[in-house]
Amino acid sequence: MKRILITGASSGIGMHLCNSYLLAGWHVIACGRSMQKLQDAMPSDHNELTLCTFDINQPTQAIETLKQFDSLDCVILNAGTCEYMDDPLSFDSALFKRVIETNVIGTGYCLEGVIGNIKRGGQLAIVSSSVTLLPLTRSEAYGASKAALDYLARTLAIDLSPKDIAVSLIRPGFVDTALTQKNTFSMPGIITGEQACKYIMRGLEKRKLEINFPRLFFFTMNLLAFLPNKLWRQLAIKMIRTP
Hints:
This protein is of the alpha/beta class. The protein has helices spanning 12-23, 35-41, 59-67, 93-114, 140-159, 193-205, 215-225, 229-241; strands at residues 3-6, 27-32, 49-53, 72-77, 118-127, 166-172, 210-213.
C-alpha cells in the first residue's frame, strides 16, 4: 500500500487531499498543529489513517516528529499562512517575519525531517501560489514567501533527480478555504477545495514539474505577466485607486 504524508491537513486543500487519497486506497499521514482539528476534519476510525501533530515553527518538534515516518511514496508540504500588509508606510516587520517563518522556514524544517524518508521513485510536492506570477497589492510578505518556495521546489527538482525523486511545484489560484474566506476583495476564478484536490492529484499522477490551476485564471495571469513591468505597475496602481 502506498503511503503519503500531507501537512496542513486539518482544513482547506490539505483536508481534501487527505480524504481523497484515503478513498483512493492510500495510507495517509495527516499532519497539523491541533489533534482536535485533525479529528474533526478526518473520517473517524479509518484503518489507513495516521494523525500527526506538530508546529512547523518549532524546529526540533517538526523535524523529530517527521523523521519517524519512513518508506513514503509521496509528501505534500501544504501547510502555510497568509497575512496582508495594509500600510506600506508602516511596514510591519513582525507580520513579515511570521509569514516568512511559517511558509519558508517551516517548510525547511519539514524537509529536514521528511525528505530522507521518501522512497526512490517517490514524489515531493510543495504548495506555492499563483501570486508569484505578478506583484500584487498588499502581498509583500505572502508573495515573497511563495516566491521563495518556487525557487526551492525548482532547485530540489534538479538536485533530487539523481535520487529518483520527482518534485512538483503546486501553484493554485484562489481556492475556497478558511484563509481565503477572510479576504475582502474579489477573487476571480475561485474554485472549491474538491476541485483543487482533483487538479493536484491528476498532476501528481502524471509527475508534473508544475501543477498550475485553474487553467483559465492561470492563463490570464500568465498573459498579464508578459506585460512590461512598468505597464503592469500602472495597471495595478489604477486598480487599487478604483473605489
